[in-house]
Design goal:
alpha/beta, 8-stranded mixed β-sheet, 7-stranded mixed β-sheet, 14 helices, about 20% strand, elongated
């Protein structure tokens, strides 16, 4: 993991492999952002002109490398675009800072140390730069760079560059308690997001319900979180028909993992429920060719919940946070659930399975019922649940559904605040009728149009009465298949972790919504 330091050195005197400065898009060309003064001085006040000559305009996503002149200890300057110059008296948007820092950190892969001299006018700015740099530096290299057994004398293969080793944040007042706390928060949140990314990116032959549960158990011991794992025998005894039905086609049996972080002064309890399908073939309703290759990411919701609980513990939040990981592998076999089968859920309701590829809602239903039994103040479930949500909102925005409008609004506002694109979605009552079954209490499929909303309505049936509940469908942003951008890598993203952590902080402060 990339290290973070709050440097007392100035940009001109910092010994590092590179210095990162910001450049914004002005009406007449690139404009240097605050923090670049010392670097501009070393260029005799002509840094903006040099950057423009090199083609830089200050647009978001731009990264321009150039050699440093004499007068600076660092040999390389990285100028990153921040987008439009803010209006007079306005500060740079924290998300713009976060993305710019991420772009710079990724461009510095293979470097040992870089100084970040981006605009830091507040604690929030410092945290955004730190978080963006730590997230942007991420790389999943666990399965790369091994020995080439064919090459002479075991010569190493051409492995990837290692992530930037150290981020030195300039202008962040290292001796100020608020800045120190912001840096510590950025490290804790970024490390747990990157842990979630690692889990999402791990191949399904290595990450399956039992091994995921083992990771959670080890993290619980490390961070003082109580972990309980229900294996197949316990699930059978407890009557968890949804988890068992989805997982019965695989040689890797299902698990329900409970993580409980408690604080002695907590007055509120927040329950988080995550879909953890470690691989989704679609089951007997097999996915078509071209849709299976990324299905290791179908446990992204569980990864996000796991990361958020650990982050809450590391931050010592004054709130009880319980995480429920509904883990199963959905495979076709002679033992697999068939379309037309009826499952008896943990709640006692029966579900007719019309499509075995609508499995996420089945495992979540059991976990939601179990979480409801503990009467938390609120429940939020997170899942890569429906392709319909991707069609509705695209690849970068997750949908929010809830049984309480104020709670849904609060989560949307929190997501926007932390820089995660989201959108509130309705739960139209008329769509419920489409899930009526002549055989069971409810079917796991309804109308095709509005399928993401139908899935939300299904989940709502398994939430305890009187409990505020929200459902985050992160099917779009959970796994990024394109080129990296900002602090978002290719592969697992850790979508919704920041929203969940901020929600836990708001709950601790008594502002649940």
């Amino acid at each position: 993991m990339t290290a973070l330091t709050l440097s007392t050195a100035g940009a001109a005197t910092l010994r590092a492999d590179a210095l990162v400065v910001g450049v914004a898009k002005g009406a007449k060309g690139p404009v240097l952002a605050p923090g670049a003064e010392a670097v501009d001085k070393a260029f005799d006040g002509k840094l903006a002109t040099v950057l423009e000559t090199l083609g830089a305009a200050g647009a978001e996503g731009e990264v321009t490398k150039l050699p440093a002149p004499s007068g600076l200890k660092a040999p390389v300057i990285i100028a990153v675009g921040l987008g439009p110059v803010p209006d007079k008296n306005d500060a740079y948007d924290t998300e713009a800072l976060r993305r710019a820092a991420g772009n710079a950190a990724r461009a510095l892969a293979g470097s040992k140390k870089a100084g970040f001299a981006l605009p830091v006018e507040s604690v929030e700015d410092a945290e955004a730069v730190a978080e963006g740099a730590l997230l942007g530096a991420y790389a999943f290299t666990a399965y790369q760079g091994g020995e080439d057994k064919v090459a002479p004398k075991g010569k190493k293969g051409n492995g990837p560059k290692q992530p930037l080793a150290e981020v030195a944040l300039l202008g962040a007042k290292p001796r100020d308690k608020a800045f120190k706390a912001a840096a510590e928060r950025a490290v804790a949140v970024a490390e747990e997001i990157n842990r979630a990314r690692d889990l999402i990116n791990t191949p399904p032959n290595d990450l399956y319900p039992e091994s995921f549960a083992a990771v959670a158990t080890a993290a619980g011991k490390e961070h003082g979180i109580k972990v309980q794992v229900l294996d197949e025998k316990a699930l059978v005894k407890g009557g968890f028909g949804g988890l068992l039905g989805v997982g019965q086609g695989s040689t890797h049996g299902p698990r329900l993992v409970k993580l409980a972080y408690t604080h002695p002064k907590a007055e509120k309890t927040l329950a988080l429920v995550g879909k953890g399908i470690t691989y989704d073939s679609g089951g007997i309703s097999l996915k078509p060719a071209g849709h299976n290759e990324t299905m290791k990411c179908d446990m992204s919701g569980a990864a996000a919940v796991f990361a958020a609980v650990v982050a809450a513990s590391r931050l010592g939040l004054q709130v009880n946070v319980t995480g429920w990981l509904a883990l199963a592998e959905n495979m076709p076999s002679g033992n697999a659930t068939r379309p037309g089968d009826v499952l008896r859920m943990y709640s006692g309701k029966t579900v007719e399975v019309l499509n075995t590829d609508a499995e996420g809602r089945l495992v979540l239903a059991d976990a939601l019922t179990r979480a409801s039994e503990e009467q938390p103040d609120a429940i939020v479930d997170v899942a890569t649940l429906t392709g319909a949500m991707v069609l509705a909102l695209g690849n970068r925005t997750f949908g929010i559904m809830a049984n309480d409008d104020a709670f849904r609004t609060s989560i949307h506002e929190i997501a926007e605040e932390v820089g995660e694109a989201s959108w509130p979605m309705p739960l139209p009552a008329d769509l419920r009728k489409g899930m009526d079954s002549p055989t069971a209490d409810i079917a796991n499929m309804g109308e095709r149009m509005g399928g993401g909303l139908v899935a939300g309505l299904f989940l709502q049936e398994f939430v305890g009465e009187g409990i505020a509940w929200a459902h985050l469908d992160i099917a779009g942003p959970a796994f990024h298949e394109g080129a990296p951008y900002g602090y978002t890598p290719k592969g697992g993203t850790g979508s919704s972790v920041r929203t969940l952590v901020k929600l836990a902080e708001r709950t601790a402060a008594g502002d649940l919504g």
